[in-house]
């Protein structure tokens, strides 16, 4: 007995009767499951299928239907107590196998309505899926990718395309379709990854039922159009030994970071306050650009001024692309005198020294009030204290301090709160208790 391919339908039959059931009719927790010895085979191989039936009893019988590579469904094994089927000497193409479970009494009564069907199981013999990606840039600079999927030995194949953007997000074209060509815009610079799936119409529309291609990656390099400079704070106190990190970014015409751009750029300033590789101050440094980003550090000056930071001379490493003309966006950092004078205050009282008693750390920097009371079971012993970070070590090396002092503002008592910081510059107490520490460190 044979039946032409009918997508979305499962076949059930006894010796002389054929009934058709939608696959969704069997989506129950006690549905039998068909297990195959392999999903991918070579011509001439034997493949064994076993029904795993949670409702199996000593009187359960099984029937197996197979869709041949020609597209015809046939009864490969009629109802019997055997829950296994072996396909021998399989030929190139795709097979779909469906099993039915039915009690012996129902088989004898020809009551096919109570048969429980497995989901179709796909077998791919000498089959493969490959894809080819071709990119095209329009006169306006828009880039599109045309992806062509080729399926071998998959009859009446339908296709689905998945791709991962440079940001790491996966997308799909939608439902499986008979057209094997997909066109999509590439709007982000970086690496895209493509994976295609192909299957016969009757196969499950997931990675279990379909055959996947090997992933194909392409790297899209949009030309660098602009270099931007972004200081972290844009202002420093004169004579404070403070540092303002300036981020150097390489972007395209739309202002998007080019995450696969590598090269270098020259950065200059008007006050000679750029930190060179050796730690000395200079008015020009060469900044390496990796993945579209670099960084330069500006030290606080000794007098009030405005330091203008500019970039120039962007160069691209092999594989990175630059426009014929590059824009350079400058920035400014203000050097301000510390406002106020403690001598002008009416009452001056020394509360405590912040120099750590254990290792001599000094240079108080971060300050916060410990407002966390703790709990009745675990009260906070530092509640109400002033927490002060030491930015320098005993020798005065900035960024090498490791301690945080807890000062009782009423008694002046000082305790070491922490000793494992790394150049702590800022402190804040979490509403749930822990102290947040912004570490600068000697290495930035």
Describe this structure in words.
The chain is mostly beta strands. The chain has one helix at residues 104-108, and strands at 2-4, 9-13, 18-22, 33-36, 40-41, 47-52, 60-67, 72-80, 84-87, 93-103, 116-117, 121-125, 128-137, 143-152, 158-164, 170-172, 181-185, 190-199, 211-212, 216-220, 224-231, 235-237, 243-251, 263-269, 274-275, 281-282, 284-289, 293-299, 305-316, 322-328, 331-336, 362-369, 386-392, 404-407, 414-418, 424-429, 435-439. The strands form ten sheets. Strands 1, 5, 7, 8, 10, 11 and 12 form a seven-stranded mixed beta sheet that branches. It is elongated and about 105 Å long.
Question: Which structural class do the helices and strands define?
Answer: mainly beta
How far apart the termini lie comes to 78 Å
CATH class of the largest domain: Mainly Beta
Helix content: under 10%
| CATH-assigned homologous superfamily of the largest domain | Immunoglobulins
Q: What is the number of E strands?
A: 37
Query: What would the principal axes of the Cα set say about the shape?
Result: elongated
User: In angstroms, what is the radius of gyration?
Assistant: 36 Å
**DSSP helical segment count:** 1
Summarize the structure.
Residues 1-27 form the signal peptide. The protein has 444 residues and is mainly beta.
Topology readout:
Elements: E1 2-4, E2 9-13, E3 18-22, E4 33-36, E5 40-41, E6 47-52, E7 60-67, E8 72-80, E9 84-87, E10 93-103, H1 104-108, E11 116-117, E12 121-125, E13 128-137, E14 143-152, E15 158-164, E16 170-172, E17 181-185, E18 190-199, E19 211-212, E20 216-220, E21 224-231, E22 235-237, E23 243-251, E24 263-269, E25 274-275, E26 281-282, E27 284-289, E28 293-299, E29 305-316, E30 322-328, E31 331-336, E32 362-369, E33 386-392, E34 404-407, E35 414-418, E36 424-429, E37 435-439
Parallel strand pairs: 5-12, 21-30, 22-31
Antiparallel strand pairs: 1-8, 2-3, 4-6, 6-9, 7-8, 7-10, 10-11, 10-12, 13-14, 14-17, 15-16, 15-18, 18-19, 18-20, 21-23, 23-28, 24-27, 24-29, 25-26, 29-31, 32-33, 33-34, 34-35, 36-37
């Amino acid at each position: 007995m044979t039946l032409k391919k009918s997508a979305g339908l499962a076949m059930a039959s006894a010796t002389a009767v054929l009934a058709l059931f939608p696959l969704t009719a069997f989506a129950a927790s006690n549905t039998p499951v068909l297990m195959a010895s392999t999903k991918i085979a070579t011509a001439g191989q034997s493949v064994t299928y076993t029904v795993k039936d949670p409702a199996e009893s000593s009187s359960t019988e099984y029937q197996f239907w197979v869709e041949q590579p020609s597209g015809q469904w046939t009864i490969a094994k009629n109802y019997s107590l055997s829950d296994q089927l072996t396909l021998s000497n399989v030929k190139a193409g795709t097979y779909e196998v469906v099993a039915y479970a039915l009690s012996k009494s129902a088989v004898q009564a020809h009551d096919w309505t109570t048969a429980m069907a497995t989901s179709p199981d796909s077998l791919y013999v000498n089959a493969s899926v490959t894809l080819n990606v071709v990119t095209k840039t329009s006169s306006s600079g828009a880039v599109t990718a045309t992806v062509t999927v080729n399926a071998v030995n998959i009859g009446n194949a339908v296709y689905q395309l998945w791709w991962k953007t440079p940001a790491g997000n996966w997308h799909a074209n939608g439902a499986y379709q008979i057209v094997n060509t997909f066109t999509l815009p590439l709007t982000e610079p970086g690496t895209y990854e493509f994976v295609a799936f192909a299957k016969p119409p009757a196969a499950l529309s997931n990675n279990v039922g379909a055959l996947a291609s090997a992933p194909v990656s392409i790297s899209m390099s949009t030309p660098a159009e602009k270099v931007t400079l972004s200081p972290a704070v844009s202002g420093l106190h004169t004579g404070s030994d403070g540092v303002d990190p300036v981020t150097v970014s390489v972007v395209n015409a739309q202002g998007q970071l080019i995450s696969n751009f590598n090269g270098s750029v020259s950065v200059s300033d008007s006050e000679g306050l750029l930190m060179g590789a050796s730690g000395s101050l200079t008015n020009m440094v060469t900044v390496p650009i990796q993945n579209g980003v670099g960084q330069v550090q500006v030290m606080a000056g000794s007098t009030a001024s405005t330091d203008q930071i500019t970039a120039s001379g962007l160069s691209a490493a092999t594989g990175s692309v630059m426009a014929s003309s590059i824009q350079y966006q400058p920035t400014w950092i203000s050097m301000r005198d510390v406002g106020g004078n403690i001598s002008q205050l009416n009452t001056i009282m020394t509360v405590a020294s912040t120099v750590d008693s254990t290792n001599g750390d000094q240079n108080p920097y971060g300050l916060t009030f410990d407002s966390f009371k703790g709990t009745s079971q675990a009260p906070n012993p530092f509640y109400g204290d002033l927490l002060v970070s030491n930015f320098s070590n005993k020798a005065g090396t900035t960024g090498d301090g490791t301690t945080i002092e807890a000062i009782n503002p009423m008694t002046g008592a000082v305790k070491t709160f922490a000793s494992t910081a790394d150049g702590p510059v800022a402190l804040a107490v979490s509403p749930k208790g822990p102290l947040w520490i912004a570490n600068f460190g000697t290495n930035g």
